[in-house]
UniProtKB/TrEMBL annotation:
Pfam families (alphabetical): UPF0227 (PF05728)
PANTHER family for the chain: ESTERASE YQIA (PTHR35602:SF3), ESTERASE YQIA-RELATED (PTHR35602)
Name of protein: Esterase YqiA
Xref: InterPro entries: AB_hydrolase_fold (IPR029058), UPF0227/Esterase_YqiA (IPR008886)
Amino acid sequence: MLYIHGFNSSPLSVKAVQTRDYLAANHPEVGFYCPQLKTNSQGAIEQLESLVNSGVGRENSLEPTHSRWFLIGSSLGGYFAHYLAEKYALPAVLINPAVKPYQLLRDYPSEQTQPYTGEVYRIGTEEIDALKALESNISLKNNYLVMLQTGDEVLNYRQAAAKYQDCHLRIHNGGDHSFVGYQDSLPDIMQFFQLPLAVR
């Protein structure tokens, strides 16, 4: 399981920790990975692709190294997860995903401080262009479960609802960008990934 955190977030985000703990309790056979992403999209994608192609947990399998990854992406992480899902034909759950982050980030201050690592970095034209280059269409609509909350104060949920209208789409009234009640959705997420509960 590869959890991809959002903009200026980290593996310590609430949803990442809840996912890790749920897997440990209910699906101990599934490894959990959530790297601290680099602050530029090209570096972040290189990190994620390196992990997907690494063969982690597949040492004794004849399958391609990337064939058994499950992706969960939140916000900007949802945008990255979509890119990986298309490139490697992987199932992905997108939580309040960014659809056009290159437009949104144009309105952000160019100088940013990563709150978890303290890194100071800039969002410039090069980064905006790199993000736009990652934009992908949908080739396998059944590979996506998209979960949106109408109360998202950061992203307009209607953008994602329109883009993913032919996918598995669940729109929850209210909530916010953090996706209120995410923990309660974890059983449904695992069911979408067709993960049976471990025999105890």
